[in-house]
Amino acid sequence: MGDRVAIFIDGSNLYHALQGNFGRHNLNFAEFANKLVGTRQLFRTYYYNILQDPTRWPDAHREQQEFLDILRKTPYLEVRLGSTKMAQGGPVEKGIDIMLATDMLHFAWRDLYDVAVLVSGDSDFAYALQAVKNIGKYVEVAYFERSISKDLLDVADNQHLLNRSFFKGLWSGKHRTKDKGISVEET
């Protein structure tokens, strides 16, 4: 039996990076986790994000609920939702980073995994990753080239560059793009 791997996904960070880099976010999370784990054993994937306010953004809330329903049907994936508060006229995530870091540390302390894979480029997680390493665990960072903190890469034992070739075959459904003025379907 190989190393037990726990994957911790900063959902907002992943969503915006997928949208910014590929113009899509219809990721097959089970296959994504399998690719990050490789030949090792998946303990569990944890997905962290905010819950959209149904009174302020009913369409966004409905779309998010459809997305969360798909996530909840993904084997060995747990959804962890925080809330938002209004600041300077817009919604701001409240508590997501703390939830993710706390779970990562708590599960390491309880020896539930051997390797933590953080899917985020947010430098706020660097100290938590170092603390996990200090407990005796390995830490890996899955990141997009345009949105990664050098601090995270410096702490990581291993890195997964999330580029176009990494995501080949990991999309669910079809996606239409324009390539040189010609409409192309990608899967």
Beta-strand residue percentage: 25-35%
CATH architecture: 3-Layer(aba) Sandwich
How would you describe the shape?
globular
Low-confidence regions: 175-187
The strand order across the widest sheet is 4-3-2-1-5-6-7
**Proportion in helices:** 25-40%
Query: Main β-sheet: number of strands, strand sense, barrel status?
Result: 7 strands, mixed
Would you identify the CATH H-level superfamily?
A: 5'-nuclease
- Into how many domains do the coordinates divide? 1
**Level-1 CATH class name:** Alpha Beta
CATH topology: Rossmann fold
Give the overall average pLDDT: 87
- Element order, helices and strands? EHHEHEEHEHEHEHEE
Would you tell me the structural class of the helices and strands?
alpha/beta
What is the number of helical segments per DSSP (H or I, 4+ residues)?
Answer: 7
Using the CA coordinates, give the radius of gyration: 17 Å
Question: Quick recap of the structure?
Answer:
The protein is an alpha/beta fold and 187 residues long. The chain has helices at 11-22, 29-37, 58-72, 96-109, 126-135, 150-155, 164-167, and strands spanning 4-10, 41-50, 77-87, 90-94, 115-119, 138-143, 158-161, 175-179, 182-186.
What does this molecule look like?
This protein has one domain: Rossmann fold (3-Layer(aba) Sandwich). It has a seven-stranded mixed sheet with strand order 4-3-2-1-5-6-7, with helices on both faces. Strands 8-9 form a two-stranded antiparallel ribbon. The protein is built from seven helices and nine strands. By secondary structure, it is an alpha/beta fold. Mean pLDDT is 87; it is low at 175-187.
